[in-house]
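Please predict the structure of the following assembly.
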Amino acid sequence: MSEAQEAPRMPDECGVPDGMAFMHPALKKNYGNWDYHDRPQVGVLHHVAKDGSEVWTVKAGTQRQMDVYTIRKLCDIADELAGGHVRFTTRSNIEYMVESAAEVEPLIARLESEGFPVGGTGNSVSMISHTQGWLHCDIPGTDASGVVKSLMDAMYHEFKHEEMPNRVKITTSCCQINCGGQGDIAINIQHTKPPIINHDLVSNMCERPAVVARCPVAAIRPALVNGKATLEVDEKKCICCGACFPPCPPMQINDPVNSKIAIWVGGKHSSTRSKPSFHKLVAAGIPNNAPRWPEATEIVLKILAAYKEGGKPWERMNEWIDRIGWPRFFEVTGLPFTKFHIEDWRGGRSTLNASSHVHL
Amino acid sequence: MKSLLGQLEHSYETRKGYWKGGTVGVRGYGAGVIPRFSEVADKYKESAEFHTLRIMPPAGMHYDTGTLRKMCDVWEKYGSGLIAFHGQSGDIMFQGCSTENVQPAFDELNEMGFDLGGAGAGVRTSMSCVGASRCEHSCYDEGKAMRMVINNMLDDMHRPSLPYKFKAKFSGCANDCVNASHRSDFAVLGTWADDIKVDQAKIQEKVAEMGRKAFNDQVVNMCPTRALSLNDDDTLDIDNESCVRCMHCINVCTKAMSPGDEKGVTILMGGKRTLKIGDLMGTVVVPFHKMEDEDDYEWLVELSENVLDFFAENALEHERTGEMIERIGLVNFLEGIDIEVDPNMVSHPRTSSYVRMDGWDEEVEKWNARKGAAAAE
């Protein structure tokens, strides 16, 4: 009996661990005391501390979603060639730190031979920040890792070379909530048809007032179908955003054919030079074509090629477009400009051109 | 794993997802586990339950291999063996756990010193950039600030009862490597108040290396406030009063230029992505606060607490901080968290004359009193 009455283990609410406990000793020693850095080659950062100590960082791509064998392999590399420490970037690249230039080449050779491409620094195309998709999300319109694999295969050269005007941050998202975030290029699912409702399940599975409140355009209202309390959608008002689907799974928004892909450009998080900006719609109606998404990939490559060709050094995607103007953007990328590119919500008028500045 | 790939293949063939949520957690906490039950479990039995544990990484995402190997061992024992470094909020995602194994897996990770992250309508896992550990641009101790702020909000992370999610992120400079401005309700960005530092001899070297035209094109002419000008002797003329600390010239001239000595933070609030009224940028709420001593870090913790309390009390259900600010107006929000208005908070003053100006004189007096006090210091 005494065993049964033993209090269950309660969590140790320890919070965020201190990075110091896990940090490479050279980083710890020079914490807050760095002087400058340069990039001796693609994929390598060289940081020099105020006391003259140096650290070389080798950056490699990972698949983010890793099995334990891959992680152990990455650990073996760190143990053998980088003092047993690593760090990850926000874009799921792995970084190895070493304290002499001579240790850089063997590390690169080993990473490359194990299949981890070295690159992603400076004005390259770094790893795509992405989501979970079909692998694990409960509301996905497409896959995440698969799309990223297809795209990064096509952009392998751009990950391994610094040939872009400035860094390129690409994101993918498997619904319009856009967990992948803003990007120089964002490849996102865009639903094009209202949800298909299973009226038999709504009253059991959904908190109806909460679903009504979730709709951005007040298109959802309570209804009675076959004697059952349910919800209905005013299909003329519906903007097909899918916001009702997470709180109410019987309002299925994902559709093998009508959930399309849209591509957005010019999102920028930093306040470097220009202020942060949101990405803007440039292409839509692209098929969600698993397993390799060739149509979406082709458009991304087209945009990248135009930016690479036309951007001036240090111009991010949005800054390049600000300079050349949208008419030229659509011209050099060959993408069509349609009425859907023009913002039509209440605050949208501020996005219209209110000047005689035109690009001819 | 075999079964998971079977279900994934099924998704590829039918172009639909087959996971649904539910309620799975660990003792003492109300969030941090993402429940996933398969809708096609009859076909793919092993993926019937495939829950995720969100675990908060060390600040700066530093690891030693011993820790990573231990995590692998735990996940081989209790989970699918699939781990993501890292999710978009910054969690280590231990993916693929049966309901039964969630508690023992968490217990072992917790014994290692790791804690569950956020999910649902609560404080979410945070991120700080590499910062002081390996970056000369670092303007404060990002990891320390992040841990102090977040570890003070653990109750609202682990027992979520906020109107909606609340995210804070910490970048050491305007380059914002953790995407705080867009992706968080409370974005802390490093900056400085005094003059930018410049080593003129190294500027001359840089001009020689790049060529004068390239230096003008890529450094001088890209300054957003036209604060730079190249002197005839190839030194740099800097109008520090016009500098907005955007980092561009420092990024190009890493050896010749660096942030000033009076380091601190600018804080933006209310950034978020689409749901429900569309994307919102964070807005400047604190133009500058120095980050020198312990008191400054305590100030930051207190500010974050005030903002979170105000959000908890005033936001509507499923409303983010930015949406609340948009609904009630920035001024009401500022009054709620006891911060004075500042011209750095706006792109420009109002353009609409449709406003009641009751109390104009009192507001002018307040401004003059504040300016007078600042001048006396």
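Chain B is about 35% helix and 15% strand. Chain B touches chain A through 110 residues (CB under 8 Å).
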